[in-house]
Amino acid sequence: GLEQDLAGRHVVVSAGGTREPLDPVRFLGNRSSGKQGYALAATAVARGARVTLLSANVELPAPAGADVVRVSTALQLREAALKAAVDADVVVMAAAVADFRPAEYAGGKIKKVDGVDPAPVALVRNPDILAELSAQRQRGGQLVVGFAAETDDVLANGRAKLTRKGCDLLVVNEVGESRGFGLDTNAAVVLSADGTEVHIADGPKEDLADAVWDQVAARLP
Ligand code: PMT
């Protein structure tokens, strides 16, 4: 929108996907390109916001006018998000965060030994950043927005996730081999804690971003 309806607001957006290292050359990761999060940052700048973009392993040009903070792991993203959220009006978690990380990090490259089966990789749970941000609002009236990537029972799973995470809005996108991740377009349903359900047709990720900001702007104190 041309309207400066986010002027004077500080918004924090996370983008991309975390990488959880196994050894110096290997990691557990996901298919997020960062396009949706970068589109949220660019459209928020256009609507007048001060934008902090927490960027996890994204290879896109930085959106003009946004402060970019680069992170890689879920633990680094958590630290950066809690710090940036202190004076934020809105926090949007569009990043795909690994739910688990390898329990141990091997300081040297893990070697294959002839005739020996590989040991299973033990995982430990990562903190849920969105749930933490929602539970401990860093500022009165702060809005917390999550994204959810679902492959089936999109609405039922989305509604349950909104309640579980405790956020104000949850943008549920259906993902799959040919949807969501990496593409330039996305479709979603924006669920709110106040019970509304807004369907956004498949289109450019910038259009979805603007539709999310419309929902946010309508709820800002
Ligand atoms: O980057 P693109 O290629 O453009 O793709 C965009 C996208 C599909 C990655 C994006 O639109 C999206 O859906 N992002 C959220 C993906 C995700 O991790 O969904 P989830 O259902 O696993 O997590 C739900 C929410 O909790 C998310 O807001 C996530 O940031 C947050 N979360 C999850 C786990 C965790 N440990 N901490 C979190 O904060």
From TrEMBL:
<feature type="domain" description="DNA/pantothenate metabolism flavoprotein C-terminal">
    <location>
        <begin position="6"/>
        <end position="218"/>
    </location>
</feature>
<comment type="function">
    <text>Catalyzes two steps in the biosynthesis of coenzyme A. In the first step cysteine is conjugated to 4'-phosphopantothenate to form 4-phosphopantothenoylcysteine, in the latter compound is decarboxylated to form 4'-phosphopantotheine.</text>
</comment>
<keyword id="KW-0460">Magnesium</keyword>
<keyword id="KW-0479">Metal-binding</keyword>
<feature type="binding site">
    <location>
        <begin position="127"/>
        <end position="130"/>
    </location>
    <ligand>
        <name>CTP</name>
    </ligand>
</feature>
<comment type="similarity">
    <text>In the N-terminal section; belongs to the HFCD (homo-oligomeric flavin containing Cys decarboxylase) superfamily.</text>
</comment>
<feature type="binding site">
    <location>
        <position position="99"/>
    </location>
    <ligand>
        <name>CTP</name>
    </ligand>
</feature>
<keyword id="KW-0285">Flavoprotein</keyword>
<dbReference type="GO" id="GO:0016874">
    <property type="term" value="F:ligase activity"/>
</dbReference>
<keyword id="KW-0511">Multifunctional enzyme</keyword>
<keyword id="KW-0456">Lyase</keyword>
<feature type="binding site">
    <location>
        <position position="109"/>
    </location>
    <ligand>
        <name>CTP</name>
    </ligand>
</feature>
<comment type="pathway">
    <text>Cofactor biosynthesis; coenzyme A biosynthesis; CoA from (R)-pantothenate: step 3/5.</text>
</comment>
<comment type="function">
    <text>Catalyzes two sequential steps in the biosynthesis of coenzyme A. In the first step cysteine is conjugated to 4'-phosphopantothenate to form 4-phosphopantothenoylcysteine. In the second step the latter compound is decarboxylated to form 4'-phosphopantotheine.</text>
</comment>
<feature type="binding site">
    <location>
        <position position="161"/>
    </location>
    <ligand>
        <name>CTP</name>
    </ligand>
</feature>
<feature type="binding site">
    <location>
        <position position="165"/>
    </location>
    <ligand>
        <name>CTP</name>
    </ligand>
</feature>
<comment type="similarity">
    <text>In the C-terminal section; belongs to the PPC synthetase family.</text>
</comment>
<feature type="binding site">
    <location>
        <position position="147"/>
    </location>
    <ligand>
        <name>CTP</name>
    </ligand>
</feature>
<keyword id="KW-0210">Decarboxylase</keyword>
<protein>
    <recommendedName>
        <fullName>Coenzyme A biosynthesis bifunctional protein CoaBC</fullName>
        <ecNumber>4.1.1.36</ecNumber>
        <ecNumber>6.3.2.5</ecNumber>
    </recommendedName>
</protein>
<comment type="pathway">
    <text>Cofactor biosynthesis; coenzyme A biosynthesis; CoA from (R)-pantothenate: step 2/5.</text>
</comment>
<feature type="region of interest" description="Phosphopantothenate--cysteine ligase">
    <location>
        <begin position="11"/>
        <end position="221"/>
    </location>
</feature>
<keyword id="KW-0288">FMN</keyword>
<keyword id="KW-0436">Ligase</keyword>
